[in-house]
Each structure stands twice: as structure tokens, then as C-alpha cells.
């Protein structure tokens, strides 16, 4: 009985210490990032107002906007809205796979000229309530010259996706550096924190999953960002992230459910 009480006392102290350190780390994180930057919502195109979505479109699990691929033979650009999105994060975390999964068969990969070497752009054009939206999605290569590319990559972006590998805490720790560099050049873009390779993450021990998820949620809070866990391999939350961006930009209803269950693809906001 004495041994049982001693073990229970030790476990209680460990749990208390873990919670204390977690709160302390959140405080340090908030101080290091600084005050979250508020971004300005972009209204719908004044020349092409979008009608209000029907109640069916606002149900959970149904996209807030009706999207369909654009036909290649459309020539009229009078209703085209061009928007830029930037992907940032360490190398080998799945940025390219994530982007290719979203762009799919309509992808138009455009490695840009010598002055922007290390940047890749892919385009995806959609119909949203009768208006064509062309997303130009820029991926930044992570190397010694990535800092030089940040102004070109981030300026004029309406959303910046800060990405990390859920199975690598090192890449999660790098998110803060990427965030600070990006905010020097763009303080209005919608910030989104994305954990990739969820299919590998769920193979980790449950206590490690809890630790990584808690740290990611703390980072997202400090960045004033929405957090998504995703998997390009199984197409988990990939399309949902871009539907979320579209809803934000055009002030459309978004009723996605918050999910904080360990072992499931987390969505936190």
C-alpha cells in the first residue's frame, strides 16, 4: 500500500509539472511572437457581387461555396479575380505533395525566372458564385537563400500557409522563424498553420501526439492562426483548407466543426 501511494504521488507531481511547463511555454511563445496581427477581410468583387449562400451550403460538412473546375476554353477575363497564396516551411515536410493534391489535374506549374529562382508557382482557377477565382499558389524552397525570396513570395499574398511535418518537432519549432520573417513583408495575409503527414503522425505514441498537438495549438494561438492537421496522401483537410480561405476572403459563412480529439485530424480556431 505504501508503494502504491508513493507511485500515485509521483504521478501527480509529474502531471502538475507538465501542466506548469506547458503554461510557461505558452507564455514565452506569446511574448516571442508579439501581439497577433489583425488582417483585413477582402470583400467580394464590387462588379460581380456573389449572392448569399443558401442554408444548405452552410451545413456542416458541406462546402460554404460552390466550386467547379474552370474550362480551358474560357476567354473572357472580365469576371476573373486573381489572388496569391504563399506556402512556407522547412524542406521535406510535404509542401509540394500538399499543393499537387489540391491543384490536381488542372495544375500549371510555373518555375519563375532567374531573379526568383527557388520559387515555384501553381495555378488553380475555380467558379465561385458565378465569379472566376484564380489562385496563384507560391511555394518557397527552403535553402540558404530563402530569406532573399521572402519579399517576392509574401508581398500581395492574401493568405500565408505556415507548414510543418507532424512527425517532426524540429519542423514545428521552425514555424516561429518562418512566421516572423513573413510578417516583415505582409501583415494582412490570413495566417494558417498546417501540420502535414497526419497519416504518419497517428503512428506515434499517444503521449507524443498529445505533446505535439498541444504545442501546435499554442503556436496557432500566438500567431492568431487557424490550425489544421492534414494528409496529402489520404486527402485529409486539403480541400477544406482552401474552402476556408475562400470563405474568409469573401466573407462567406464557415461552419466547420472544431476538433481537438487526439488521434483525429485536429481543427482549432
Q: Can you walk through the features of this model?
A:
With 269 residues, the chain is of the alpha/beta class. Helix content is 36%, strand content 21%. The chain has helices at residues 2-33, 95-103, 146-154, 169-173, 175-183, 198-201, 206-223, 238-249; strands at 67-69, 80-88, 109-111, 119-128, 131-140, 157-165, 190-196, 226-229, 267-268. Strands 1, 2, 3, 4, 5, 6, 7, 8 and 9 form a nine-stranded mixed β-sheet that branches. A hairpin with a 2-residue loop joins β4 and β5. α1 (2-33) runs parallel beside α7. The longest helix is centred in the first third of the chain and has 32 residues, at 2-33.
- Derived from helix and strand composition plus strand pairing, the structural class reads alpha/beta
The averaged pLDDT comes out at 76
**Helix and strand sequence:** HEEHEEEHEHHEHHEHE
Q: How can the largest sheet be summarized?
A: 9 strands, mixed
- Please bin the fraction of helical residues: 25-40%
Q: Ends: how far apart?
A: 45 Å
Question: What portion of the residues fall into strands of 2 or more residues?
Answer: 15-25%
DSSP strand tally: 9
Approximate shape? globular
Brief digest:
The chain is of the alpha/beta class. It is built from eight helices and nine strands. The protein starts with a helix and ends with a strand.
Amino acid at each position: 500500500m505504501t508503494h502504491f501511494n508513493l507511485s500515485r504521488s509521483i504521478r501527480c507531481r509529474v502531471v502538475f509539472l507538465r501542466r506548469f511547463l506547458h503554461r510557461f511555454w505558452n507564455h514565452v511563445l506569446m511574448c516571442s511572437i508579439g501581439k497577433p496581427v489583425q488582417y483585413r477581410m477582402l470583400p467580394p468583387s464590387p462588379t460581380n457581387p456573389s449572392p448569399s449562400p443558401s442554408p444548405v451550403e452552410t451545413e456542416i460538412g458541406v462546402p460554404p461555396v460552390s466550386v467547379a473546375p474552370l474550362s480551358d476554353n474560357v476567354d473572357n477575363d472580365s469576371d476573373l479575380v486573381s489572388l496569391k497564396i504563399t506556402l512556407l516551411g522547412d524542406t521535406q515536410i510535404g509542401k509540394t505533395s500538399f499543393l499537387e493534391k489540391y491543384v490536381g489535374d488542372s495544375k500549371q506549374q510555373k518555375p519563375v525566372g532567374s531573379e526568383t529562382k527557388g520559387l515555384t508557382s501553381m495555378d488553380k482557377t475555380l467558379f465561385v458564385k458565378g465569379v472566376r477565382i484564380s489562385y496563384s499558389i507560391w511555394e518557397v524552397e527552403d535553402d540558404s537563400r530563402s530569406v532573399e525570396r521572402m519579399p517576392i513570395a509574401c508581398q500581395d499574398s492574401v493568405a500565408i500557409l505556415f507548414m510543418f511535418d507532424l512527425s517532426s518537432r524540429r519542423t514545428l519549432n521552425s514555424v516561429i522563424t518562418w512566421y516572423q520573417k513573413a510578417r516583415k513583408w505582409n501583415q494582412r495575409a490570413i495566417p494558417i498553420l498546417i501540420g502535414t503527414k497526419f497519416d504518419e503522425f497517428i503512428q506515434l505514441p499517444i503521449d507524443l501526439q498529445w505533446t505535439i498537438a498541444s504545442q501546435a495549438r499554442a503556436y496557432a494561438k500566438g500567431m492568431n492562426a487557424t490550425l489544421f492537421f492534414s494528409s496529402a496522401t489520404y486527402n485529409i483537410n486539403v480541400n477544406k483548407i482552401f474552402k476556408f480561405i475562400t470563405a474568409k476572403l469573401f466573407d462567406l459563412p464557415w461552419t466547420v466543426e472544431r476538433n481537438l480529439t487526439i488521434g483525429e485530424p485536429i481543427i482549432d480556431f
